[in-house]
Amino acid sequence: MNSSRSSLAFLLREGRPTVTLGTNRPQNFAETLPMEMSVRIFGELDAESLCSASRTCRLWHHIIEQSEQLWRRQCLLVRAICRREVDRDRRDGLSWKVTLVRNYSRCCLKRDWLRGCFSQVRSADELSSRKMTPLDAETWGEILQTELDR
């Protein structure tokens, strides 16, 4: 490892990623990097990790909350499964973040139904550990058609 890389050490202290830049004082990487770089780093997270990261510290919360780009990226992943719902919310003027929050659980449930995760359910007890969310008639139609096609 060369000397320029050895002065940049990534540490994990008190559950928070920090950077030591040749000093003894560790710093939060978001304090030392340009905002755009922090947004790019946060952009590598999935939706659940992004929400967890926003609770890490005030600076991370501010960066994540203010970045429509981060929420848009996650929302477009949800849109791949819940296109109708996401498009409706966006047409209604909801932000990317609000649209994601409204549709994330629905997306996960619909994805599992379409993948056949519930094809062999014999009783409601088998679903007791799953978080269920209301689905509209069109979504149930898609799910039923997929089941019939299996």
From TrEMBL:
Gene Ontology cellular-component annotations: cytoplasm; SCF ubiquitin ligase complex
InterPro entries listed in its UniProt record: F-box-like_dom_sf (IPR036047), F-box_dom (IPR001810)
Key words, A-Z: Ubl conjugation pathway
Keyword Lipoprotein in record: no
Highest taxon of source: Eukaryota
Pfam families for this protein: F-box-like
Name of protein: F-box protein 48
